[in-house]
Specification:
six-stranded mixed sheet, two-stranded antiparallel ribbon, 6 helices, binds zinc ion
């Protein structure tokens, strides 16, 4: 069975009132920023959204997105698979006042003049946030895992600027 495609955007008010549940896939070729931040995206993205009205009558939605990507290990320079798992809860807002009145548990998101929120953008933003700042294999799986400590020291040594370099350059002039 073919999976439902995630719509680009939905009317967040109507979706909340209808308690809309979405399980859908998002074509990986549509996520250019995630594509640029990784070596490759392994598959289309699995997503799930559930829209709801909470006890305070706030319209909210919860979502999940997951996909495996390939990154380059910064220790051994070999490719590594990284599983992105994002979970989020948003409360669509129209203006700053609504945003300021939100309970802390909700992340505000602005909806447009048609009441719509952009689901593709949310999924991509959330997946980008799950990427590690410095990708590294687990020590046991890394080619250079055993050299971790000595490697770190050498790199630090090289990065430290040598004050005499600057002097030498001045003298050459
Ligand atoms: Zn590695």
């Amino acid at each position: 069975m073919q999976k439902v495609k995630l719509p680009i955007s939905v009317d967040s008010v109507r979706a909340a009132n209808n308690r809309l549940e979405l399980v859908a896939s998002l074509d990986k070729s549509l996520l250019s920023r995630l594509g640029e931040s990784t070596n490759s995206i392994h598959s289309d993205i699995d997503t799930a959204f559930s829209f709801d009205v909470d006890q305070q009558k706030l319209r909210i939605f919860k979502g999940k997105a997951s996909v495996a990507v390939e990154l380059t290990c910064q220790r051994c320079n070999e490719p590594m698979t990284y599983q992105c798992e994002a979970e989020f809860t948003y409360c669509p807002v129209l203006n700053k006042e609504q945003e300021n009145n939100l309970p802390d548990v909700y992340e505000p998101i602005y909806y447009d003049e048609n009441g719509e929120v952009n689901l593709h953008q949310i999924v991509e933003d959330e997946l980008l946030l799950t990427l590690p700042q410095i990708a590294k294999h687990a020590i046991a799986e890394c080619k250079y895992g055993n050299y971790e400590s000595s490697f770190g020291e050498i790199e630090e040594e090289q990065e430290r600027p040598n004050p005499f370099d600057a002097l030498a350059k001045l003298k050459l002039k």
